[in-house]
Write a structure and sequence with these properties.
Elements (H helix, E strand, L loop, with lengths): L5 E5 L16 H9 L1 E6 L2 E2 L3 E3 L5 E2 L1 H17 L4 E7 L5 H6 L5 E2 L14 E16 L14 E5 L3 H13 L4 E5 L2 H9 L5 E5 H10 L6 E4 L5 E8 L4 H16 L2 H10 L16 H8 L8
Parallel strand pairs: 2-6, 2-7, 9-10, 9-11
Antiparallel strand pairs: 1-6, 3-4, 4-5, 7-13, 8-11, 8-12, 8-13
Helix pairs in contact: 2-7
Family: Belongs to the bacterial solute-binding protein 3 family.
InterPro entries: Bact_solute-bind_prot3, Solute-binding_3/MltF_N
Protein name: Transporter substrate-binding domain-containing protein
Length: about 300
């Protein structure tokens, strides 16, 4: 990852909201208060969660949620201004960057797992997904068993990669699994014909499909290998900071604002080219908005 950061001045807070005084020490909040800077890790090709617009701004569903969290932090600390330092991350480096203190939090398209809880803390869930596959509509592939003896692409370091290897080994279907650094590179491999399918979280696959020149040429299909919860992540052992983040997310969900964000990013045209994922809300996502929680789905 490059060392360059994009710094944006946060000049507004959530109107009408007040946040409780936590009455606990927080190393993260202390550092943010001392520097008037919050350091956020963001994915740059996780459409529509966290990705670059044409002018290289980070936008998306998760980015909108993150900005609400930042506003809550600024309000809690009573800062006149809060600088946001955004750093691009990958599936391989986000955990080390959090642990070593280079980031205060990460909010993009990260799956909450019990294994990862040993390394980082997870916020309230922001999205519920399933691991499925993207393939050509005319390829005759409808489920994972149809990928026998075929090359399949997946994003390296993701829970989808682990689930795909596990399925391949347990069912002995002889897939060749190609792991690449980013989601957009994986879709490029699929479009170039070097893979029969791209396996990833269904939300990201719908995003990749929407970016294609002819979305109708591609389908998202397959019985989910796993169902998972996306959440923002932070360093462990800072309950006061996590409590603030969780409260911001819970208020966003129970107020109806999160549902409006869902409609904005998943059912309407979005930047940069007016693409539309055309993905109605699931029962699991609607239930999450009604009852926010920080539990993994395993």
């Amino acid at each position: 990852m490059g060392k360059s950061h994009m710094s944006v001045l946060m000049g507004a807070v959530l109107a009408g909201l007040t946040w409780p005084a936590w009455g606990q020490d927080s190393a993260t909040l202390d550092r943010i208060a001392a520097t008037a800077t919050i350091r956020i890790g963001q994915r740059v090709s996780s459409v529509p969660f966290s990705y670059y617009s044409d002018d290289r701004r980070v936008i998306g569903y998760s980015q909108d949620i993150m900005m609400q969290i930042v506003a809550a932090v600024r309000d809690q600390l009573k800062l006149p201004a809060l600088t946001i330092s955004l750093a691009p991350i990958t599936s391989q480096n986000w955990i080390p960057l959090l642990i070593n203190g280079n980031l205060d939090m990460e909010c993009s398209s990260t799956s909450h797992t019990v294994d990862r809880e040993k390394k980082v803390a997870f916020s309230n869930t922001i999205f519920v997904i399933g691991t499925r596959l993207l393939t050509r509509a005319d390829a005759g592939i409808r489920d994972f068993a149809d990928l026998a003896q075929k090359q399949v692409v997946v994003t390296a370091g993701t829970t989808a990669e682990r689930a795909l290897h596990r399925f391949n080994e347990e069912h002995g279907i002889g897939m060749t699994i190609l792991a690449v650094k980013e989601h957009d590179l994986a879709f490029q491999e699929l479009q170039a014909g070097r893979a029969a399918a791209f396996v990833m979280d269904d939300a990201l696959l719908y995003g990749a499909r929407a970016e294609a020149p002819r979305p109708e040429d591609w389908i998202v299909t397959g019985t989910p290998l796993t169902r998972e919860a996306y959440a923002c992540t932070m360093r462990r052992d800072d309950p006061a900071f996590k409590a603030l983040v969780d409260a911001a997310i819970a208020r966003l969900m129970t107020s109806g604002e999160a549902r409006a964000l869902y409609d904005k990013w998943f059912t309407q045209p979005i930047p940069p080219n007016g693409m539309n994922l055309d993905w109605p809300i699931s029962a699991a996502q609607a239930a999450l908005y009604a009852a926010p929680n920080d539990r993994p789905i395993e």
